[in-house]
Each structure stands twice: as structure tokens, then as C-alpha cells.
Amino acid sequence: MTLRATRDGARINGKTAMGFEMRGAFVKREENKAAWESEVEFAEMARVLKALAAELGQDTSAAIDELAHHGLGAALAVLAGQADTDVEADYLRRRAQSRIMASGLQ
Fold first, then answer.
1. How far apart are CA 80 and CA 65, in angstroms?
2. How does strand 9-12 pair with strand 3-6?
3. Residue 102 to residues 60, 95, 98, 106: CA-CA distances in angstroms?
4. Which helix (H) or strand (E) holds 37?
5. 50 near 44, Cβ under 8 Å?
6. pLDDT digit string, tens, across residues 34-91
7. pTM
8. Is 99 helix (H, G, I), strand (E, B) or coil?
């Protein structure tokens, strides 16, 4: 039995080793899953920020722009600058409500 590494994976007696192919597929699947989860999380943040801004009577576009360019902390700072309330606590409350509604546990 001869084990030889190639560009396409390992070959044993001229045949591609299935374990190397499966590992590559698993890694790719995990990378795709992580990217999808990141997109879902970002969409949830945007949805909750938009709802919170509307609840506070503020323009939603400024908060969404900050989220896209500088992250959640900057977006909450924009809302906090225009409100007299604890925006972070309101965001967490609103996010929890959103998750409860999405799960159907009401």
C-alpha cells in the first residue's frame, strides 16, 4: 500500500482517499454555515434597530448607516444621542421580544 499526497488530496494505490474529500466538504460546509449565521445576525440587528428607532420616534436611516459602517455600538450611540433613555437596555429588550415572536413561544 502506497500513500502519496497530491494537489487534489491523498492517493492510496492510485485512488483518492475518501477521508480527505470528506474533510474538505465538512470544512466548506462549516464555513458556509458560519457566513449564513453572520448574515442572519446582522439582519436581526438591523431589524431590531429599525424597530427601536421607530419606537423612539427617530429617523431609522442614521442608525442603519452607522450599523453598516461602524457596528452596533456606533448605531446605539446615534440613537442614544437623540434619546433620554437607556438605549442599550431598550435594544436588548426589543431583541428578546423579536426572538420570542420568531420562535412562536408567546
1. 15
2. antiparallel
3. 22, 10, 6, 9
4. helix 18-55
5. no
6. 999 999 999 999 999 999 999 999 989 999 999 999 999 999 999 998 777 889 999 9
7. 0.68
8. helix
